[in-house]
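A further point concerns the way the authors explain their paired sequence and structure data. Since the whole study asks how a given chain folds, the encoding of that fold should be made plain. A single example would do more here than another paragraph of explanation. An entry of this sort, consisting of the sequence and the corresponding backbone structure tokens, reads as follows:

_____
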Amino acid sequence: MMQSEITGQLVIPTARFSLRPVRNSDAGMINLFGEDKRLARMTTHIPHPLPPGATEAFLDRVTKEDSDEKLWSIDGSASGMGELLGMISLKKVTEDQSEISYWVAPNLWNSGLASEAVQALILANPLGDKSMVASVFQDNPASAKIVTNMGFQLIGESEVFSVARNGMVNTWDYVLRLPE
């Protein structure tokens, strides 16, 4: 692993891609994928339709040095897969705990990329967390399978607001205790 000279954030290599800090040049591909209703509906924060400037505003927020969220692009360019395959993030919940969130381009669903990205971020533990949490929409069993396969334990159910759905969505909530 190495640190990005621009953000000080870790670049995390995997067998098929690297997790690298998001950059403003990712906006076009984020827009392309974010326009896909199937993807937007599986997130809390991507509106559908995607309004002009939404991606740029999002990038401005998460790339600030004092942001409580660290965002990585899933970059497969070294293996010929494309520069942006998806995104994965850690958002601080407490000093010792972060929430992990991710998405991959719909044409790459069921390819194992999300599992590989989640595993890489857990192993790297770039924020030095003692635990990570995840919240998964109950109508997204594939995502639930990813986190449970990584060792996350179900701790309850809740609801969150999805901008694309313009309503509340039932979730399963998980925690993973990390080795010290």
Notes: The chain has one domain: 2-129. The beta strands are 2-3, 10-13, 18-21, 69-75, 86-94, 97-104, 131-137, 153-162, 167-177. The chain has a mean pLDDT of 93.
